[in-house]
Amino acid sequence: MATNHQNGLSTGNGGNTTVQPAATSVINLSNSSDVVIGPMTQYQGSVTIYQYMDATVEASRIASKFPLPMRSRSLTEFYDLVFPSHLSFPTAGRNNQNRGLPSAEPSTLRQERYFIYGALIFFAIVGFSTAIYFIVNQVRGPADIDREILFDTNYHRRTMPNLGNSHMIIERRNWGSQLDAHASIQLEHPVQYVIVTHIGLRSKNCTGMHECANRMRMLQDAAIGERNLPDIPSNFYLGGDGNVYVGRGWDIANSYHNRTLSVCFIGDFQTYEPKESQFSALHHLLTYGVIQRKLASDYKLVARRQTKPTTASPGDMLYARLVRLSRWNPCGTQAYAHCGAELGFPSVWDDEHDFNERNGIHNPLLIHRKSTEEE
Fold this sequence. Notes:
Residues 167-308 form the Peptidoglycan recognition protein family domain. This protein has helices at residues 55-63, 68-71, 75-82, 107-140, 143-146, 172-175, 209-225, 276-291, 304-307, 316-322, 351-358, 364-372; strands at 2-4, 9-11, 17-19, 34-37, 41-44, 169-170, 191-198, 236-238, 244-246, 260-265, 295-303.
């Protein structure tokens, strides 16, 4: 085999020309029937070599030859001009031949893919939220849900306890009690007598929580500032809104008799009618007291006027309703012994008066107020 080193060509034994270009040679082939490209590939017969180019590079080169108005056209219009509709390019894959061309991926396939991604994200969020919910409830525990409602500070602080029938318990901190106002005598349980009183002083019934809470603060201020009491007089107060406002609570004695429980109706019921919601709240409160063994199962319900004849409390209109209740006891009325005689109670229950006498407190204002105000 002879080799032409000048042209980088070699001739095979069969008379065919073998082209072996140098590393930097550029060879133009024409009318060749036997071409060897590289050491391993050999084509026998006619050979056609196609040139592939980067479409974006070629498009940019062609675009540079057009005037400026032509360049301002959109990319789609430009492709239509450069590559007419009779020319076609591969649509599958993203190689150099179709890089930069609009994707021919079917829109339905993209929509399905987006739907799958969205569904996966949705279920991930739902699963994460469910896990957080169960973790929080496990930490809180079932005891907080089933815990009995107790007054004072024994119930769950994140809830507003109620006695049923929408009668909420409004604690001292909720109606704005003075923080340092506390009586000291403990109340022994179970209590045998429940005293019913009222506010008096031609006081109308409060109709909302804000108004009733304001009334409670006024009563406490008057009891401490004018009556020399350590705290508001009664254990519980019943508002016209149907809620129960905690005074001294279940465990501290009231200012009337330290072995009784006092419940005060907010309002003057010598002048105004009590509301049904107040009687419903009274029933639920006392029923709860029996269940919690704060009250004796056979407790007696009496009006303040039955334990102190010089007062009209709790007013004629309230007293007329009170005597019709099944737990009312006629003690202290005509032909009956005084209330608490069987327990050794005095004939007149007035611990506040006894306290003032023992301590030499004689306030003329109290003489008038005690005949009309809460007793």
